[in-house]
Design goal:
The complex is a heterodimer of chains A (393) and B (386). With 393 residues, chain A is an alpha+beta fold. Chain A contains twelve helices and seven strands. The longest helix of chain A is centred in the middle third of the chain and has 40 residues. Classes of the chains: A alpha+beta (393), B alpha+beta (386).
Chain lengths: 393, 386
């Protein structure tokens, strides 16, 4: 694929880390709901907290395709590891990368890239899920500070993060049309607190929490992009989410890849221990279905990533990737459960963990329904689809 | 043709509904889930109310009812709460074997204890590494003097442990015979016999309140009177038993699907996004309709299978079909329920994720999809027309 030697080395290092260090502790991470800090250090040492952050700001400066390939490797185990680095690489930091002032970039990005400060992203509210435009958190300017009030929910890595990018309404009339502003918050600011950890279906080693802003005082300088960008926050948030869709596809793909590997090993083991071949035909056909789906997802993802790296708009492609890859991963995990029969129910056999983990991918960073909305709207913009030629790029 | 439930059946449905309202307390259930504990007090009360062992004769603490009544109760209980419902519906697991093949002394001793919720029972059939193919089971029972001596490991034994009264163990008793149909015998093993060890199977996807263990039989000795029915008749007994228990399992699946549906329906009728209730979006209504259609078809086929069973026309293929359809329905309905609740669907508090995990458990047990299709195909391959 024309990757640099440096990148190939990184890819191998990540693969080795997953096989040797992460996967062996997968079950205890799940049971204790915690990733040991010395393991997080290993992720830091490889630079995995700053994959898309430009080199000048201390990151690895990976291209979209390169980042996708790393995600594909690191999600071949418990999804909590990827989640630990995910927000710093994506939704937590990209707002600063895209729209931050030089001073903001210089202050935050190197620390985020090193993994010294974990970054998180706080958009969702109790009454604003898919409808992000209906957020109620408010920000009012008082002297040199913005005063934020409101509640955010399901915030990934809220407990470990130091830096949060969040959005609040600064003009109740304009709202999403120039009335929402993006801020950089830091843990410890007066009036900022982290609420209870959610008990989730999966990804138990990765936490989501509530965030509470109660007269939270945020310095004026912490508006992303500076005071000139007051009112432009909704655009920033949507652009951030746009980027995450390809990454989410890669995470689903990596998980599905591991699931087919586990299923393959299980069938081979059954054959080796004397189970008659004719009783495993259905299982082997399911394996074939998995391979077909995984391959299709992979090509789709790589194609969209290359388009993005080539500077093409990929809004539709990114949404298609997110829907297809995440739903594909659920299907593949479901088939694996059938192949494993009753054994599939046991966490030690891993497939049920993947089934639970990947279920979240169809929900967060834009549900499958929101993706279909985006795709259908983009399609309907055309008067005549026959006139559209997207094969050019 | 008559699809109407009779008055007594409707009363049973009503009684279960009231029972759920009174006993399925959210906080209690959350506590049980946290501890992974069997819902002992709810089970006791279910026994007091007569919800257990309804198929047993009246002189054995039962009510002499049919499978259809058991199906109605299982459905309602699992609808109320998937995890508790599964435990109550499975509290007397394997007892159908005793009811159909046990001698009067065995029945008299054990069935009342089950109906009165004083013990749980277990069917110890599956073994490590053999999957759903029970003909590959290796646990043996050998005659030594007047006794049978059992040696082997059984896995995924539901209800195993301190609350169980006995195990019905599928054992290989004839090592010479080639035909797998005539080499197995079911032996009743009281849990206090020497040589029984149970071990935990670790965390699992769902049915967290249900005890599921591996059971080691280390030269466990039982007398001749513990043989269930006739020696070397075990395979036929198990086949008939599976056929019956798959209908109960299907009813549990239907209940789980209904429970998830109820919760999702309530959610979409109150949750607002983009300025309107979710239920007003066409796509939400399409989803609800799909879910409801699937549930009603699985439910109808399950009732029909129970009715066939009660009228003496039960068939393994038919039971396998309802289990297949109902489990698939439960999984897909619960999955869609999670999606409708969005982020809330993924967290424990809103229950549907647990219903989904419990549905996945039910799907894998009592024959998974591949095995069930094998069963369905058996007669079809012989040319049976539909």
């Amino acid at each position: 694929m024309g990757m640099t030697q440096d990148f190939k080395t990184l890819q191998m290092q990540v693969r080795y880390l997953v096989d040797q260090e992460l996967d062996p502790i997968s079950q205890s991470v799940e049971a204790r709901s915690q990733i040991p800090e010395d393991v997080v250090d290993k992720l830091r040492n490889l630079g995995l907290f700053g994959m898309p952050i430009p080199k000048e700001h201390g990151g690895l400066g990976l291209s979209t395709l390169e980042e996708i390939l790393i995600y594909e490797q690191i999600t071949r185990t418990n999804g909590a590891f990827r989640s630990r680095i995910g927000t710093s690489n994506g939704i937590g930091s990209m707002g600063i990368v895209y729209d931050g002032t030089p001073a903001q970039k210089q202050h935050y990005l190197p620390r985020i890239a090193k993994g010294e400060w974990t970054a998180a992203f706080a958009l969702t509210e109790p009454n604003a899920g898919s409808d992000a435009g209906s957020i109620q958190t408010s920000a009012v300017l008082e002297g040199d500070h913005w005063i934020l009030n409101g509640t955010k929910v399901f915030i990934t890595n809220a407990d470990t993060a130091r830096v949060f990018t969040t959005v609040a309404v600064t003009d109740e009339v304009k709202r999403t049309r120039g009335g929402v502003t993006a801020f950089i918050l830091e843990k410890g600011m007066p009036g900022f607190s982290v609420g209870a950890t959610d008990i989730k279906m999966g990804l138990k080693g990765s936490h989501t929490n509530e965030l509470i802003f109660k007269d939270c005082r945020v310095p004026k300088e912490n508006v992303i992009g500076g005071m000139d960008r007051v009112g432009q926050g909704f655009k920033t948030a949507m652009r951030v989410l746009d980027k995450g869709r390809l990454s989410m596809g890669a995470c689903a793909l990596g998980a599905a890849q591991r699931v087919i590997e586990l299923s393959h090993a299980h069938i081979r083991y059954q054959l080796e221990t004397g189970r008659p071949e004719q009783t495993l035909q259905a299982a082997q056909f399911k394996l074939a279905d998995m391979a077909i789906q995984i391959s299709a997802a992979r090509q789709m993802l790589y194609h969209a990533s290359r388009l993005k790296d080539g500077g093409h708009p990929v809004t539709r492609e990114a949404s298609m990737v997110k829907v297809f890859c995440t739903e594909m991963a659920s299907r593949v995990a479901g088939w694996a459960m059938e192949i494993f029969e009753e054994d599939g129910c046991l966490t030690e056999n891993k497939v049920e963990m993947f089934l639970r983990d990947v279920r979240l991918y169809r929900i967060y960073e834009g549900t499958s329904e929101i993706q279909r909305l985006i795709i259908s709207r983009d399609l309907m913009k055309n008067k005549d689809l026959a006139q559209e030629n997207r094969n050019e790029f | 043709m008559n699809f109407e439930l009779d008055r007594a059946q409707k009363q049973i449905q009503k009684a279960v509904k009231d029972f759920i309202k009174g006993e399925f307390d959210r906080e209690t259930i959350e506590g049980l889930l946290f501890e992974h504990q069997f819902p002992e007090s709810i089970w006791k009360k279910a026994g007091d109310l007569g919800l257990l062992g309804m198929q047993y004769p009246e002189d054995l603490s039962g009510q002499g009812l049919g499978l259809i009544e058991t199906v109605l109760v299982a459905e309602a209980l699992c609808r109320g709460d998937s995890s508790v419902g599964i435990c109550l519906s499975r509290a007397a697991l394997g007892a159908e074997l005793l009811l159909h093949y046990g001698d009067p002394a065995q029945k008299k001793k054990w069935l009342p204890l089950l109906a009165e919720s004083r013990i749980l029972s277990c069917a110890a059939i599956a073994e490590p590494g053999v999957g759903n193919d029970i003909t590959r089971c290796r646990t043996t029972a050998r005659k030594e003097g007047q006794d049978w001596v059992i040696e082997g490991i059984k896995t995924f034994v539901i209800n195993a442990g301190p609350m169980a009264g006995f195990y019905l163990v599928l054992c290989r008793t004839d090592s010479d015979a080639k035909d797998s149909q005539n080499v197995f015998t079911i032996l009743l093993v009281e849990t206090d016999r020497a040589g029984i060890e149970t071990s935990d199977m670790g965390p699992r996807i769902g049915a967290w309140l249900l005890p599921v263990k591996q059971v080691h039989f280390n030269r466990v000795r039982v007398p001749e009177k513990n043989v269930l029915g006739k020696v070397n008749n075990g395979f036929k007994q198990i086949t008939a038993y599976m056929s019956e228990s798959q209908i109960s399992a299907a009813a549990q699946c239907v209940g789980v699907a209904l429970g998830a549906f109820d919760r999702a329906q309530k959610w979409v009728r109150q949750r607002e996004q983009f300025g309107q209730k979710l239920v007003h979006f066409q796509i939400t209504r399409q989803k609800l309709s799909d879910m409801a259609t699937r549930i009603e078809s699985a439910r109808t086929l399950t009732y029909q299978a129970a009715w066939f069973h009660d009228t003496g026309h039960g068939k393994p293929g038919r039971s396998a079909m309802v289990k297949l359809l109902a489990a698939k329905t439960a999984v897909s309905v619960c999955d869609e329920a999670i999606q409708l609740l969005g982020g809330y669907g993924y967290i424990q508090e809103y229950e549907v994720e647990r219903f989904f995990r419990d549905a996945k458990f039910l799907e894998a047990f009592d024959g998974n999809s591949i095995t069930l299709k094998e069963t369905i195909a058996e007669e079809l391959a012989k040319g049976k027309t539909l």
